[in-house]
Amino acid sequence: MINPNDRLLVISTSTIHGFSFLEYIKDEIKEFIQSDEIIFVPYARPSGISYDDYTQNVKDALQTVGISVKGLHTFENKKEAILHAKAIFIGGGNTFLLLKTLYELGLIEELRSVVHNGTPYIGTSAGSNLTGLTIGTTNDMPIVYPPSFDALQFLPFNINPHYLDPDPNSTHKGETRETRINEFHKFNHQVVVGLREGSWLRVENGVVELKGKLSARIFRQNEQPIEFESGILEEKVYRI
Ligand code: ASP
């Protein structure tokens, strides 16, 4: 079901408590891409940051492991840049803005095609949401309106990044994350993988592996959620 050529790092978050931007994951990124160059896609613009500033942050973080970074926004011909990229990294921010921009630039099909030809894809957060079927389980507000919620669809399930457990001592009465995902399942069938901060999926040869310190919470429609500790996620868990 997953294209065996696809190589993905589906990372919940770029920053974990006590570490600088990408610090905890940069060695994994270096080993994963097996090269020294990344095209960075800054279109999710976290906190409204500019494309240049966002790309600079990534440059600063990855130069320490010998990776050079170019922002996709700096290329006149973005399709060509994607086609010739050694590796692609799509950063987090607002998922609606990210997907809308990629549709508007006409890059969705290029991204699918290069990844199916083996170009390594790294996503953090919003960039990870795009690896799933739809962006219907993002935590973001719909600040803009993409032409479709369909994502890149490398994975036959959805991602919920920054998955958050309810705080038993909280007096807050808003929906928990689990409640929101249950609402999603009233209208949608696909499995949702809740990735806690500091966890990521590594996908190679059609196999999905959960890595990092924390378990993932997996939501199947009309079933009790599953806590998956680590290791290979069997297809029967995410197949519907
Ligand atoms: N806003 C998140 C990010 O950092 C995405 C999400 O929570 O769905 O990219």
Automatic annotation (TrEMBL):
Subcellular location(s) of the protein: Cytoplasm
Pfam families the UniProt entry points to: Peptidase_S51
Chief place of localization: cytoplasm
Enzyme superclass (EC): hydrolase
GO MF assignments: dipeptidase activity; serine-type peptidase activity
A GO CC term assigned to this protein in UniProt: cytoplasm
GO process annotations (BP): proteolysis
SUPFAM superfamilies: Class I glutamine amidotransferase-like
Top-level taxon: Bacteria
InterPro entries given in the database record: Class_I_gatase-like (IPR029062), Peptidase_S51 (IPR005320)
Catalyzed reactions per annotation: Dipeptidase E catalyzes the hydrolysis of dipeptides Asp-|-Xaa. It does not act on peptides with N-terminal Glu, Asn or Gln, nor does it cleave isoaspartyl peptides
Enzyme Commission number: 3.4.13.21
Keywords tagged on the record: Cytoplasm, Dipeptidase, Hydrolase, Protease, Serine protease
Protein family membership: Belongs to the peptidase S51 family.
NCBIfam families to which the protein is assigned, alphabetical: PRK05282.1
Protein name, per record: dipeptidase E
Organism: Empedobacter falsenii
